[in-house]
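Shift notes (night). Ran Cyanophycin synthetase while the centrifuge was going.
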Amino acid sequence: MTDGSTSAPPAAPTSLLELRVLEGPNLYFPRAAIKLTLDVRTLAEADEARLRAVGDALGLRSLRAGAPLSGFRQRALVRVLTRLVRRVALDSGTSRLGVRVRATSEPTQLVVAYPWRDRSRARGLGQAVAAVLDELTAAGSDHDVADAVARAAARVAATEKGPGPTTIRPRVPVVAVTGTNGKTTTSRMVAHIAREAGHHVGWSNTDGIYVDGHLVEAGDYSGPSGAGRVLAHREVDFAVTETARGGILLKGIGVVHNDVSVVTNVTADHLGMQGIDTVDQLAEVKGVVPRITKRTGWAVLNADDPRVFAMRLTTKAQPWVFSRDPDSPALREVLGGGGRATTVIDGWLTVLDGTRADPLVEVVDVPMTLSGLSRFNVENTLAAASAALAAGLDRADVVAGLLSFRPDAEHNPGRMNFFTLPTPAGDVSVVMDLAHNEAGLEAMVEIMRGVRPDGRRILLGLGAVGDRQDELLEMLGEIAARDADVVAIGHKAKYLRGRTVEEVDALLRTGAERVGGHDIETHPTELASLQALVAQAAPGDVVGLMCHAEREEVYAWLASVGATADSPEQLAAKVRQASTGG
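Came back to this:
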């Protein structure tokens, strides 16, 4: 058994696979909750008469037991566990308790969640419920069920209450950003705009805690501790939190509410982990962020993503949608209902409020859009501008922030960073991006094509972290081999996450071979793959690196060989040259 907060007691119930303390709003409740993962194999495989007897003992007189290991059996067990948790809680002195029980992809496992106010007693309730299940494994009569519940309730009642949740009620405006792709770039842009407006900005993300643009604590702070550490800095008067899937599932969200939420998109990523097996389930997780947005706040949603757009129905906040298409029916619906929208009209980033259109800035003048070339960064810009305005930042400051935020190592490290690398024969372009999933890699290739002069090649340093499904790793290999002229694999040894280098290599190659990609070199590191590609690049070629593990090492090497970061003007010139066939 594993535990989200402290070590498990020595005599853990064998039915309890995991007890996790969620410190704040989560997938199951808008406040702190306990999540149990329970092994119910004995009841899942029991004959129907046995399960009906258990149901009768718990007061479920009309239980449809279903055949062992069937879908009906799983649903019957959801009812049984819901009643069991409430019976133990009631008999131990808790008269009202919300309980959520969910089926999993495993027919012999269920997830149980309930809110908590007293940590020790709430944990004790989870362990007591699992203990009852352990007794039912061997017990055979209705009397055994009643006795097991009574003993469990007595243990819970005798448990000290313990401390309460640590969820924070923010004292400053909070903009919370989530999504599969673009959340880091979007949250960085919002933080930058707020600094332009004169705020002392705290920002938490997977890299660490930043205050006024300076890293003050390194580490993954996309969970509840990130929000807490940002808000603990007394000088911070504006907070931006990047909220990842893992943080929501494993710890919950660290604040009671946010003032503005942003959901950039939801695509296949990290599936098969923590019970999230489909994109729809992933969208439900991301939807926790707008669900806790204040009624007086705004939920900024991608109108071009149906799963994200649907989140307007589960939030009490006002909807502010964004889309590259000014004629999108989603925009008309939201505007007709009193919401707002941000879109692109005649090349201008434009805010719509009812029938009023306010053009803010030309898209090609926003450096992050790469002269309008990057479809994804146009969407990130729309999202960031919407969030900044929704948070009450001044229009002029929003425009100034959009114009001054650059796609470089200072403002947006590791995301679509462009360099010019001189060689004796001529200049080579280098593009560095995280590109951690299919959508990210396709966006990266789109940009590389946009700066590649006619007749030049795309050379790609391919790599992936280990905690992705086999299909996704194969697809990355397929996209790379399909869209690049030369591919070299560079492994991320720090991020194998349970796999071996050989496994990752084989899966990437399997995908590449589906589209004829057979002549692919493998290198032990990201940097080594980049160096190998640069060594064979000709003037005008574009070399891309999917960089996650060695960002600083890559920056240092590029500097050592004379590469310089492209300014917005230089990048615009490359785009113009490529578009004219130069």
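Residues 29 and 115 are 7 Å apart (CA to CA). The first helix runs from residue 41 to 45.
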